[in-house]
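Re: weekly structure request thread

Next one in the queue (85 aa):
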Amino acid sequence: MFGFFNGSKSANLTKGGAHLTFGSSRISQTMSRASLILKKQLWIWPIIAVMLLATVGFGVRSAISRTLSENLQSQLQTLNHPTSC
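Done, posted below.
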């Protein structure tokens, strides 16, 4: 009944199929090189922090600016078209 879950990995390995591990992939090699560079080159961290903070700051600034302009536009429309009482 649960033959799909039992031994499916070992069945693939015994049939002679290629087994690619994370350690031998190109992505793994690239990540380990990047990790080594970041460990050895401590001057990179402040640059990464400045870029990250600038991106977050720009996003917050644009959100606040958009909210303020929408609020002002709503208030001006209310002044321009008063409701009759």
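Residues 10-14 have pLDDT under 50 and may be disordered. The longest helix spans residues 44-80.
Next request, please.
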